[in-house]
Each structure stands twice: as structure tokens, then as C-alpha cells.
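User: C-alpha cells for this one?
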Amino acid sequence: MLEAFAQWWDGVELWLAQLPFPFQFALVMAVLLPASLGVARLIDRVVDQAAGRFNPVPKVPPAAEPEKVEAGTPS
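Assistant:
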């Protein structure tokens, strides 16, 4: 099984290496940009979870609204 995958990968690599540079660039960007974005989002979520676990934000009760004073009425 591993040998078959290695042969397939060699074929893909050879095909990609024989393409003209603009097509190589377009294919690599079509694969690497979404993959990099996905990995960056995953890392961001993991770091946010770890930061929240080790340094939780204290819960502060909401401030009471001050009474609204209507315009023109004496205080």
C-alpha cells in the first residue's frame, strides 16, 4: 500500500515538475493558500482556547444604566 502511494506521488511530482512555471505557481497557490488559511485558523483557535483556560477573563457584572433625564425638566 505504501509503495503504491509512493509511486502515485512520484507521478504527480513528475507531472507538476514538467508543467510551465505559471501553471505550477497557480496549482501550488490553489492548494497552499486554502491549506495555510485552515492551519492558521486552527492555530488561532487552539491558542485562544489555551489563553482562555490559563488566563480567564474575570466576569464583570454589567453597569447599571444611569437614569435618563429629559431635556427641559429641572433636576
